[in-house]
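Exercise 7.
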Amino acid sequence: MKSIRSRIEARFEFFAHVLFDHRYKMLVVMLLFVFLLASQIPGIRLDTSTEGFLHETDPILIEYEGFRDLFGRDEMAIVAVRSENIFDFKFLGKLKNLHEDLRNNLPYLDDITSLVNARNTHGIDDELIVENLFEKWPANKQELNVLARQAKQNPMYKNLLLSEDGKLTTIVLKTHTYSGQGGETEEDLAGFSDEAPDIGDPLDGDADWNIEKQVYLTDMENSEFVAALGRILDQHRTGDFPVFMAGTPVVTDFLKQSMISNMRRFMGIALVVISIFLFVMFRRLSGVLMPVFIVMVSLVSTVGLMALTGVAIKIPTQILPSFLLSVAVGASVHILVMFFQSFDRGETKRDAIAHALGHSGLAILMTSLTTAAGLLSFSTAEVAPIADLGLFSAAGVILSLVYTIVFLPVLLSIFPIKSKFTKEISGQLSVKGTPGNTATPMPMDAVLNFVARISTQNPVKILLTALILFVIALTGALKIELSHDPVRWLPDQSDVRISNEILDHELKGTTSIEVVVDTKKENGLYDPDLLARLEHSGQLFETYKDDKVYVGKAFSLTMVIKETNQALHGNNPLFYKVPDNRDLIAQELFLFENSGSDDLEDFTDSQFSKARLTLKLPFVDAIAYSSFMDHVQDHFQSGYPHENIQITGMVAILSRVLTNAMHSMMKSYGYAFGVITLLMVLLIGRVKIGFFSMIPNIYPIFIMLGVMGWFHIPMDLFTMLVGSIAIGLAVDDTIHFMHNFRRYYEKYQDPVAAVYETLHTTGRAMLVTTCVLSIGFFTFMFSEMNNLFNFGFLAGFTLILALLSDYFIAPALMVLLNKKTISNS
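Solution. The predicted structure, written as tokens, is:
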């Protein structure tokens, strides 16, 4: 193994000489490569949608898209206005002005509903009238009181357009389903138009689609919609007319804007902090500019690669720039530490570069591969952005590896660097604390001597202490709770979060489960028994309530039929029910369809074979939906044995994302551990030592999980990333430690001496790279988003633990596992 490692190190030295001799040619090649990738960046997309968390082939997403193709978007933007007296002429005048302003000036608006145009179904003699509630503006207080009474008595308005206390009213806004970019924005595929092409059934998995799939409303278009909505509301908001907005489109846009702001903030803070650390360490401008340059070209190339392959930046992938910023610096630091030590001892630049690459090249190669392996463990994740993060962060690590071992030596070769060679400096750069060394230690040497002395003289005590802490952490880890709650990611005082929480309380929910009941035959919805079951289901679910989830409202086609039946029986409330006669049901649906209202297309298809049941729920943590989803599934499986049932909507997607995240977490941790263990064994060359060397890598992960459990930090889509990322990064320092320990152990045949010399060489770089990496992650704590704050704290904390493990646990293990065979006194 020693000869193989020596040959590889010699190859790295030879490669460094080649780079030096052809430095200008290599510079041109590398700059051209970077330019080609960077030129793709203008095409990068952002996607903060909830459905963006699922792969395009996920069955839940396919069903949801089929639902949208048939019924349009279920995600609503909700504008709410509070007043002590909603049915007041002055207030209603302002509401009407706002309604008309939104209707006329909002881009991508498909439908708008408020008290101004709410459906008012009634009968005059034998005629069915379906018109707006304020079809005719009331001329006096008496007429207004009549409309107020009708509105308060209408079951459809309750918890949708009016709160139960009658002091909150809403304007419900529905955007186009399809994008206006290169496609139609009208809902041609979802309505009742006789001219619509025969495309098969979008909810039928066996349907043969014969047209190209249309593009749904894009993230950019949603942002335009929300921005315009905000501007219009600002023009109408006054002290006596308080207006606020909520709903999934608004939350999605807030997450996007926060993501853009966070990425800029994180990169700026990380760059400044990293630059300061590099300058303090090297005391040279070149020691700052060159690593930062390598980091930036790595980042630019990775983002360009994402744009080239058409992969969007999503909420979890926003950590990629800051992550690469920190990771890419580490390899450069190891090269520069060895280069400056050699160069300042009087070696030529050519030999100093060769020595640095020969000394650290193999370790850098292995650390990059293990980091990439840890990240690639995410690439099989069932959560789409997690898979993207794993794939492209691994690609970024490999790109930074190439730039470090090719681009950095070329830059060192070309740009003038002044040597600090003096006898005094030469003496200070020798190894301190090793046997036979009498030089006066510098401050860092004193710290490293202390670490080496404690870890080598008390290995059993150190390992027993670590074991006790492990048991405590394991107990805490069992307390970890899973979570996926995008609204609670928002700052506590965020207007969007406050608005959503108000509407969840006042209107009993802002999101929904959508159930599609397919009778599998034309006019199947004329069946009185089926409609009675559908009505019973809605009434049953409206009584559901557990600790966090309740159904604020359930509505379906039966509500339209009940309104129509009552209107055709002299507006008698006793007839607000579904008829038990098939022919009467068919007649009432026919009359409603020909009344001029297009509301039927919100509840059924043109063939009256499918019915939509909407269950309105509060926006809570997705883990809380689990038992309710099971309840819904069981209810429809048992109550509708002859119909096809599909359960979709935002709640179904949120629940699916959480389930996928749990599966992905277990798989990624397992993959990362297995691949990295194999690489460690190959690097060290001894199976036993290779396996034991994984202890310092795994130990910090368990301590981190213990902290999460004891301090009630939830395991969400971000904190679940910490484990695999930390394994991939923590193993870097372990590899550098083990690589150099084996080198010095073979030289001295004394584990204590090998530990001292390892800590005084690679131990310095380990300290700096850990500081850089941890601070890079700690910058996420400046985020206004709670999930990013937790991620940054845990990742930085875990990396510090990893350094302490490599400073104490790894040396203790090596002293116990390796025997002293030759005296070095």
